[in-house]
Specification:
about 375 residues, alpha/beta, Aspartate Aminotransferase, domain 2, Aspartate Aminotransferase, domain 1, globular, binds pyridoxal-5'-phosphate, Cys/Met-Metab_PyrdxlP-dep_enz, PyrdxlP-dep_Trfase_small, Cystathionine gamma-lyase
């Protein structure tokens, strides 16, 4: 069951991705292989078997990598978290004197890492808003995009930026966390590398941390594999197995999350007490022209402003189907007031991640919770 046929649609690809050929008596997805060392051939040593030691070798991890690789359309290496994948990629590729451009409005720990660690190593770091304007890429070693960007949901034109980057000899990396490989295929759009957190919608059950890098370049796969083996940021076998099991329902989960986001965005757009609504799937959204051209489906994440921190607290407390939590892309609808984590967002800015609840229930609950939260209260 390993090689997905190109004509298969998303649901079929997800349910079969990375599974071994059927063997009578064997499970569909083999259970996790828990091993640090494996038995070695006493004469031939490690060369005689696929597995010698758990840091470089784990069959559960390899099956997950073939599954994600099939969906992204490249070779995949998984990491212990999205941050492990992003920082590993940047450290493996960049050298002192290089210039890197990173999103100014993306996941903020990436900026913090760049300032604290990359600059300290002598890498020149620039931050560019996802919507641009982008500077000349002459002399830039690596450009990283995050599209849609978290949490503001702006979108960058990957194909256009890939052309410009490649003309200057710049590597293009796309963080595909929010879209997932079903929402967008950056390698098809010209990116050299995809990097992502698999903690979010990809696995979607809020029960594990995972990251990955995917590419079509054999040289980059080799560099990243060597980096990961040396530094050791591998996910455990149980997390890899859970992630693979969860991938089978990715198409179903995203379909409901996206439908819920569309309905919630419509509700919020009609309310005078909500401002700054962003969802790239709305034709009125500034991101819509590029998003609708390059994305295969829209994410379940919506952002908006409730005007004040205490109004966000009242809204979440009143809701029965929206819980306060960071992260996004899970089965349950969550709201996160991003300013509390240090994001450069307004105090009442909310990132709402729609879960897979029934759409009518979720919309009714959010409408009632906004009513219960009342208006912004003047400071006394
Ligand atoms: C866009 C994006 N990239 C990367 C990460 C980091 O992923 P992880 O939390 O799995 O390390 C996050 C986490 O929220 C994210 O939103």
């Amino acid at each position: 069951m390993s090689a997905a046929e190109p004509q298969w649609r998303d649901g079929t690809r997800c349910v079969r991705a990375g599974l071994p050929e059927p063997v009578p008596g064997d499970p569909f997805l083999p259970g996790p292989v828990f091993a640090a060392p494996y038995h070695l051939d006493p004469w031939a040593g490690p060369a005689a078997a696929a597995n010698g030691y758990g840091r470089p070798d784990n069959p559960t991890r390899r099956l997950l990598e073939s599954a994600i690789g099939e969906l992204e359309g490249g070779d995949c290496r998984v990491f212990a978290s999205g941050q492990a994948a992003i920082t590993g990629l940047l450290l493996a590729v960049l050298r002192p004197g290089d210039t890197v451009l990173l999103p100014a409005d993306g996941y903020f720990p990436v900026r913090a890492f760049a300032t604290a660690t990359l600059e300290g190593m002598g890498v020149r770091v620039g931050f560019v808003p996802t919507v641009g304007p982008y500077p000349s890429f002459e002399g830039v070693r690596l450009l990283m995009l995050e599209t849609p960007a978290n949490p503001g949901l702006d979108v960058a034109d990957v194909a256009a930026l890939a052309r410009e980057a490649h003309a200057a000899g710049t590597l293009l990396v796309v963080d595909n966390t929010t879209a997932t490989p079903l929402g967008q295929r950056p390698l098809d759009l010209g990116a050299d590398l995809v990097v992502a957190s698999g903690t979010k919608a990809l696995t979607g059950h809020s029960d594990l941390l995972l990251g990955y890098v995917a590419t079509r370049s054999a040289e980059l796969v080799e560099t990243l594999t060597a980096w990961r083996t040396t530094t050791g940021a591998v996910p455990g076998a149980f997390d890899a197995w859970l992630a693979h099991r969860s991938l089978g329902t990715l198409d179903l989960r995203l379909a409901r999350q996206s439908a819920n986001a569309a309905a919630v965005a419509e509700l919020l757009a009609g309310r005078a007490d909500v401002t700054g609504l962003r969802w790239p799937g709305r034709p009125e959204d500034p991101a819509y022209p590029v998003a609708s051209a390059q994305m295969r489906r829209m994410p379940g994440v919506v952002s908006f402003d409730l005007g004040a921190a205490d109004r966000v607290s009242r809204f979440v407390e009143a809701a029965r189907l929206v819980v306060a939590a960071t992260s996004f892309g899970g089965l349950h609808t969550t709201a996160d007031r991003r300013a509390q984590w240090g994001d450069d967002t307004a105090p009442g800015f909310v990132r709402l991640s729609c879960g897979v609840e029934d759409t009518a229930d979720l919309v009714a609950d959010i409408a009632a919770a906004l009513d219960a939260a009342g208006p912004v209260r003047p400071l006394s």
